[in-house]
Amino acid sequence: MRKKIVAGNWKMNKEFQDAEDLMFEIVDELTEKGSGDTEIIICPPAVYLEMSSDIAAENGFMVGAQNLSQFDSGAYTGEISASMLHSMGITHSILGHSERRTYFGETDKVIADKVDQALKHGMTPIYCCGEVLAERQAERHFDVVRNQVSEALFHLGKEAVSQCIIAYEPVWAIGTGVTASSAQAQEMHAFIRSLLTEKYGMEVSEEISILYGGSCNAKNAAELFANKDVDGGLIGGAALKAADFVAIVNSFQ
Ligand code: PGA
């Protein structure tokens, strides 16, 4: 059974006390409103992972990193490895987010190595893909996403790819307040699933959760999540407010 998942990407926001407060506010909201059968993964900045995972473990949700190193271990100053994260109880990592591609020069090859590191150390990659506005305007969005998905994931075998979560995040929708329409999201999610079916067969493609990200909020989540191939969301801005985030968690029909 495909899982319903809502993940929060806090990006580089909040100082320690505010981050801890937000964690506890989320716990309070979840206690009050519940979360049905939706899996929740919160991805705070790396320095707050330990604090967050302690709270998450006691309250039935999971914590993910926003990034990890493509290298195993050793002389890579400033990096954090998948094995370190795993040893701290961190189960997931966002990988290939468009901000990492744009500002930190991550290529599909580097991202593919990060996916391998995550899987090697028992973590679940949340692999992000999506086109920029000019690519959509030039009607190249399907080609762009096909390339991103195939270059980062298609070296994997069936079993490994089944461990992955995919997030479709059109770059023009991230942090802009312009959300993809429900039809645009469904169209691209169905396309991604068809790529997975072509490569791995239906049994595998039907098991992989594909999340939508890009200005998803408490108002539009229900319409987006009602689509047959939209299995939840990767939430940025709206994940920084506990009530909004938990409302999104409860937006499945
Ligand atoms: P947003 O960010 O919800 O603020 O658009 C989503 C993301 O970047 O993952």
Walk me through the structure:
With 253 residues, the chain is α/β, with parallel strands linked by helices. 44% of the residues lie in helices and 14% in strands. Strands 1-2-3-4-5-6-7-8 form an eight-stranded parallel β-barrel, surrounded by five helices. The structure holds 2-phosphoglycolic acid. 2-phosphoglycolic acid binds next to strand 8.
CATH topology, by name, is TIM Barrel
What percent strand? 5-15%
Number of helices: 12
General form: globular
Distinctive features:
8 strands, globular, 253 residues, TIM Barrel, alpha/beta, binds 2-phosphoglycolic acid
Short summary:
With about 250 residues, this protein is of the alpha/beta class.
List the helices and strands and how they pair.
Elements: E1 5-9, H1 16-33, E2 39-43, H2 49-59, E3 62-65, H3 82-87, E4 92-95, H4 98-103, H5 108-120, E5 124-129, H6 133-137, H7 141-153, H8 158-161, E6 165-168, H9 182-200, H10 202-205, E7 210-213, H11 221-225, E8 232-235, H12 242-249
Helix pairs in contact: 1-2, 1-12, 5-7, 7-9
Bound molecules: 2-phosphoglycolic acid.
